[in-house]
Amino acid sequence: MGSAGTAVEEDTEAVAASGVADPWVTIVWNDPVNLMSYVTYVFESYFGYPRVKAERLMTQVHEDGRAVVSSGGRERMEVDVQAMHGFGLWATLQESGARGAA
């Protein structure tokens, strides 16, 4: 596996740079069950991401073990995490570390 921590740190730094107050992130984790094509489909259908972005995120999940797939307020991220669980994906939310950055 690659340096999974670095990938998430880079994604959360991008969120912090956006100036959003108290952002949270949804992280999708790799699992041995779901096919890569299915994970791509979930990212396209739920988040509305274009195929290229969905495939890039899926590849990050597969190679790095996780990927930040959305960011925003805690309540919205809780909804996204629950949706990912509904699709059978392993997902969690965490604070991006940008508290007070605005």
From TrEMBL:
<comment type="subunit">
    <text>Binds to the N-terminal domain of the chaperone ClpA.</text>
</comment>
<dbReference type="Pfam" id="PF02617">
    <property type="entry name" value="ClpS"/>
</dbReference>
<dbReference type="InterPro" id="IPR022935">
    <property type="entry name" value="ClpS"/>
</dbReference>
<protein>
    <recommendedName>
        <fullName>ATP-dependent Clp protease adapter protein ClpS</fullName>
    </recommendedName>
</protein>
<dbReference type="GO" id="GO:0030163">
    <property type="term" value="P:protein catabolic process"/>
</dbReference>
<comment type="similarity">
    <text>Belongs to the ClpS family.</text>
</comment>
<dbReference type="GO" id="GO:0006508">
    <property type="term" value="P:proteolysis"/>
</dbReference>
<keyword id="KW-0378">Hydrolase</keyword>
<dbReference type="InterPro" id="IPR003769">
    <property type="entry name" value="ClpS_core"/>
</dbReference>
<keyword id="KW-0645">Protease</keyword>
<feature type="domain" description="Adaptor protein ClpS core">
    <location>
        <begin position="22"/>
        <end position="92"/>
    </location>
</feature>
<comment type="function">
    <text>Involved in the modulation of the specificity of the ClpAP-mediated ATP-dependent protein degradation.</text>
</comment>
<dbReference type="GO" id="GO:0008233">
    <property type="term" value="F:peptidase activity"/>
</dbReference>
<dbReference type="InterPro" id="IPR014719">
    <property type="entry name" value="Ribosomal_bL12_C/ClpS-like"/>
</dbReference>
